[in-house]
Amino acid sequence: MSSEEIVLKTLKESVEPLKSGEIATATKLSSSDVAKAIKSLKASEQIISPKHCYYACSDN
């Protein structure tokens, strides 16, 4: 499973938007891997940022 898939799965399972650090802790991925995954997922519009530094799945 790729970093993007792991991050997206974590955000889909979350009730609240998460910060990148919270995603890293929950997934056990490095902060840099999470940042790259977030950038990629935002570019493909699979996730959104409902407020500054928080991320959520775009279909939540």
From TrEMBL:
Record-linked SUPFAM superfamilies: Winged helix' DNA-binding domain
InterPro entries: WH-like_DNA-bd_sf (IPR036388), WH_DNA-bd_sf (IPR036390)
Top-level taxon of origin: Bacteria
Name recorded for this polypeptide: MarR family transcriptional regulator
Source organism: Paucilactobacillus nenjiangensis
